[in-house]
Amino acid sequence: MGKTTTIHAERGEAARAVWSVDFTHEFTVPENFRYRTEEYGSATADPARGLVYAGSRDGTLLALEDRRGEFAWELDLGGGLSGRPLMLRVEGDAEQGTTWVAAPGERADWMLVGTDDGALVAVDLDTREVVWRYRTTGVIRTQPVLGEGVVHFVNSRDEVVTLDVRVGEYVWQFSGAFQKDFTVFGRAGLAYLPPRDATAGDSGVLFTGFADGKVIALDATSGSTRWLTPLAPTAGKELFVDVDTTPLLYPERGELVVANQSSGVFALDLADGSRRWNTEIKAVGSIVEGPGLYVAASSLEGLAGIELDGRVRWREQTDPGSLSTPLVVGDTLFVAHSDAGLFAFEARTGELLSSFFNGSGSSGEPIYDPVLNRVYASSDRGVLYALRLLGQG
């Protein structure tokens, strides 16, 4: 079931109550003969249908009724589902149709999800059938992004691929240098900057990081390189130099924020990739935006709240173990821990508010459903937890 620990309870329930458990549901058969099992996939809310989806390492997409967690349907997609899906609205036919990302609470038509056997799969959520499947040679564990009539995604071999979103046909591919040295588990996802004026011929730009320590900006129409910036240390020999953080884009400041496993967090100029500031925090695997700051998650140094100019506002050391990409809801920061389960922190100060031990730890990224005011988190033993937030919404 899981156990919630409320921190500093003597200061009053209202000050520290964060969630209550709405339901739990097992979505993977436990593998009792493995020393460690991991579920890296994230749940996906579909409140317009009254469903929540959970993808598992055995390749099953499971749909649950979102009120009580009762089984609705399942679909075998082959390879393990370890990434966060993208929910799309689809209108019209394959030749003249349009697509857009479904807003929270909007009824999505398709789900796009990557698999551990290297496929990007489009699933029709009404027919519960695969619309198209495009195979690559690398694991896909990051969320695809939608461009102008195309979908872009990246795999574990640092291949950036663009497809016609309606039919799944190849448009272009960029291949980064294949890294033969040791790399950290995980890959940076894509960030997309739309064109200023598509009717005038402007192109959007894609940004991502590679295992060789470089950050790249690609023309979203042609796949050509706009700029390439190395972030790996120039002195000494570091074991891990990956850029595993999906870039955060701030067009109003002309800035993007990423991190290198060895040299820390960087702000780069959007136009040319030049460095603006660098904060040295080791082993940062993800960065998210918080209330007036960035939050970096490191498997070695825990969590850090970073000011917009790169100064560190707060640090919170966690127990040894891997941290998921954090989730920020209002002033509360949620992060999954590979051994300890789920934590909640005050995002502005880093103060620990509550913890939720699920018996096995969590590797998947928690997600928020604003319609039901609920956080979904999974355990590495394959149990989905629906947590209703208290004092939010």
From TrEMBL:
Source organism (scientific name) = Plesiocystis pacifica SIR-1
Query: Could you name the domain of life of the organism this protein comes from?
Result: Bacteria
The record's listing under SUPFAM superfamilies reads: Quinoprotein alcohol dehydrogenase-like
* UniProt xrefs under Pfam families: PQQ_2
Q: Which InterPro entries match?
A: PQQ_b-propeller_rpt, PQQ_rpt_dom, Quinoprotein_ADH-like_sf, WD40/YVTN_repeat-like_dom_sf
User: Which part of the chain is the Pyrrolo-quinoline quinone repeat domain?
Assistant: 104-297, 308-389
Q: What is this protein called?
A: Pyrrolo-quinoline quinone enzyme repeat domain protein
